[in-house]
Amino acid sequence: MSDLFKSAFGYFTSANSQAPTNDLVGQTVEVGYSKLRVKRVIAEGGFAFVYVAQALDSGKEYALKRLLAADEEANQRIVQEINTLKKLAGHPNIIQFIAVAFVDKNQSGHGMAEYLLLTELCSGGSLVEVLQRRSGAFPPEVVCKIMWQTCKAVQHMHSQSPPIIHRDLKIENLLLTTEGKIKLCDFGSATSQIFRPDSSWSAQQHAMLEDQMSSCTTPMYRAPEMVDTWENHEIGLASDVWAVGCLMYLLCYNKHPFEDSAKLRILNANYTLPPSDARYRCFHPVIAGCLVAQPSRRMNIAQVLERLAAIAESLRINPSEPIPVEKTAPNPQNNNQHEIKYPAIFSGSNVQDNNSSPMHSSANNVTRPAPPSPAPRAPSTNVSSSSGGIFSQIRGGAGNLLKNIRDTSSKVVQSVQQTMVRGEEMAASYITSRICVINYTEGPDTLQDMRCTIEARHNLANCAIYNLTTTQFPAHRFPNATLVESGWGKRCPSLQALYTLCEHMHHFLSNHQSNICFITCQDGRCNSAMLVSGFLLFVNFVTRPEDALQLFAVKRTPSTIQPSHRRYLEYFAEVLSSPKPTFTCKKVKIVAVTLQPVPLFNKIRDGCRPYVELYEGEDKVFTSVDDYDRMNVFNVSHTKVVLPVVCTVSGDVTVCVYHARQVLTRISPIKMLQIQFNTGFMEDDNVLAFSRSELDDIESGDHFQDKTTILVHCKVTHESIVTNSPWARHKTMSPNILFTSKLEAEETTDLFGT
């Protein structure tokens, strides 16, 4: 892989950078509904320039990278990288992208394909420069935090289906945010392909594989199975774990275990741990478990995280907290000495240009890449099957990067945009031109900020604000606007409530072509995603909830909806597909709730003291809580937890299981899990089974095992509750109500519609 794809994001944020002049500096670009001004060059290399671009409305700065691809091989590498970044989008320890644009080499004016990529600006700088400025290695607490956050990013890659291997994990590819969080970057070498050489391979096959490994890896971090393929070891996830061991060694001792990249030393895992070292002794078993020559005997990334969690506990730190290191100061002298690597994200298309000069186009259509849906899908090695995005409008004077681009080809790649929204920002994301999601955060000026954000774009008289938070908005704060209060909590709304809101939205949008719906909730990613997805189903733009959530993730950010929300969206799709005049909910007698194996929630992590609560709608109808000393304790010696229940319910049912912890003679409940379902969709089963992935409010950690199963034992009675359904007269809607133009409707439907 060329130096361009081997380097990290060596960029900084100082206004004092002595940047070379460039034709993009000073330009203003309008991407979707946001205007950006290119402020200055902060780094450049042989085939890349990195700029600071500032949003004119919020003043927030982003990193903008201009990338030149000289040949088709470079294009293909970028295509693979975008497919990887699509799947990994949204993880807190992986670099986030915002937008990308592309111009074909035939229209660039210099014979090379040209890319403009907008990503978050990691103003904390590069971790390697922080280490270089220190007189010694990082203290153990910092090493633990760096490795934990790095391994969480690697675990996210390895947990995809199929797993993604980074293959070039090194300190140069670790960045720091302003807050001090680790961000993993450079996915140009990432792949889902696992190689399994065997005795049937020819010498040419072995040589080609070794050449390929040499081109996409860094010698000092290269695993033994990559160095010598004649050993016929599998080249897969374990190679990343080897790199983790090298990185941990480097952070502890400020030197690499294989600095000379000697082949024999790597093949024999010949490195030295200082025997008298006491400061980093807790990391020795982890390093030794990672740097094992035979890949099948190495730790996996989950085991590494487990060891790091134990180290963090012994050090009494939270490994997810920011790294307490100083920010990287800019060094203008180094601007010309670093090749800058930014994530390449785009999708295939032909470039349409009616201008005689490619440097003076004023409009550009940009696609938005699709992050992973809640249920990960296997990525394809075929470029045409995995590229994609959603079009929006770009206007401005950014020269030849601003062209009309359309998604029609997989061989000529084009532009992508994704708006990644953090919960603490007052950010508006347009799902379509008539549906917008806007954040709400508690604060004295929040409503005023929200009003200003809306008024800057639209007349309040044409706006309906759907408040899904638990805080009621005073009507006088939004004069002339339509304000709809729903007050959704953390539980799923009922199907009737969801349908009623969707019906109101449809009626409001139908009244006038200029009307627009603003949806707001606490984090902008849960209840908002629920209502947006429900409305997309309501107007028949999509027929599957996962497609609706995919569009939300592309246009805004991956949702945080719980499995029960997804279950209710499936219910909603079902009732819309075959509307009936009445809704029948069976009465169900719940007799027990079983958890197997035993969850680990007590302080010594060997069991729990559980109790269960049942809700029918919003009403609590059963609890098994008792005096603390009379409640049963279950530990790992038990095969399962059985909680007896005597309760008959119907309609929306919520099962909450808590661990009882005693604090000052009183029971302090710790929520273990929650399940929500509707009895109107139950078969005549006596047992409802839920896997770990189907449980709500599950915290990350070691409380539950991967094969955890929750069983709700029940008896379906012959009684039912029949109510009139609001969807009785529901008819197939036209999805055109979502859009303001035929072009937007066609492009969005081509990419996401059914």
Automatic annotation (TrEMBL):
Residues 36-311 form the Protein kinase domain. Residues 585-717 form the C2 tensin-type domain. Residues 347-367 have a biased composition (Polar residues). It comes from the Eukaryota. The keyword Nucleotide-binding applies. One of its GO terms (molecular function) is nucleotide binding. It holds the Pfam family Pkinase. Residues 347-389 are annotated as: Disordered. Keywords: Nucleotide-binding. Belongs to the protein kinase superfamily. AGC Ser/Thr protein kinase family. PKC subfamily. This is Auxillin. It comes from Ranatra chinensis.
